[in-house]
Amino acid sequence: MIGQRRIVLEPREVPLGGVRGMNVLRALPHRNLPTIGAWCFLDRFGPADTKMRVEPHPHIGLQTVTWPLVGEIRHRDSLGSDADLRRGQLNLMTAGNGISHSEYSIGESPIPLDALQLWVVLPDSARHGAGGFERHTELPTVALTADAGADATATVVLGEFAGVSSPATVHTPIVGAEIVLAPGSRVRLPMASAWEHALMLVEGDAVVSEHPLERNELLYLGDSRDHVEVSSTEGALLFLLGGEPFEDEIVMWWNFAGRSHEEIVAAREDWEAASARFGTVDGHDVRIPAPPLPDVRLMPRGRKI
């Protein structure tokens, strides 16, 4: 068991540059914590007025979870998927052994855009399989009885929360849920005590387990909790992520999640060689080249929390 924790993981600003031309805030992976459950990556891009153009790029060994807050995003991938995404909807792409995709904002002019981009690392049983894509326009919600003020509402994006399950495909015990608190409310969020959890404050104000959260902070709670108390003065939008601790050590580099240096090198070489492993994305005549590998052997990043 990990035990109860109350550790703030402050996001860092990462410039993505190029034709995307925007900065993101990255809360995960953290130098001391590579995964929370099977969640291995959390970016927030926005809020900003921007023209987003993410050209085709590859993935292996993970699922991408796109959760828009403001604006519309067009997803295209090497499976032939072509789907627009807006607030309250979920795009879930499973990379398996290899997939490529692009993401564009809708229209030719800058638009207001804000979203969470998350990755879930796949276990051995799924990471060598075929890729897949799902678009879920209706996700289940659950009311959380308040101890003070109005009840809160949770949208179950991925996995299971408060006895309600998302229809999206998962490969490990996991939870991803958006929590909305009314002004002046206090609620208890139920938790599976064997799972580790973290809460990110997206908008508003919140106190979690007696800790005041700043916007975009991710509060790591560890495991061994059956609930956590959350309150808000002005109202809050939070994102809960967690799951069964992921036991395998992973090697993450660029857009790849593997288990060894050699796996990453092979995936990079396949992408640069335009291998059929990653397919092609219709409607594009350019794609993002892989960056150079570092001069050192890629090693798994261990948990220090």
Automatic annotation (TrEMBL):
Coiled coil: none annotated. Pfam families: Pirin (PF02678), Pirin_C (PF05726). Residues 178-274 form the Pirin C-terminal domain. CDD domains: cupin_pirin_C. Residues 24-120 form the Pirin N-terminal domain. PANTHER family: PIRIN, PIRIN-RELATED. Belongs to the pirin family. This is Pirin family protein. It comes from Microbacterium luteolum.
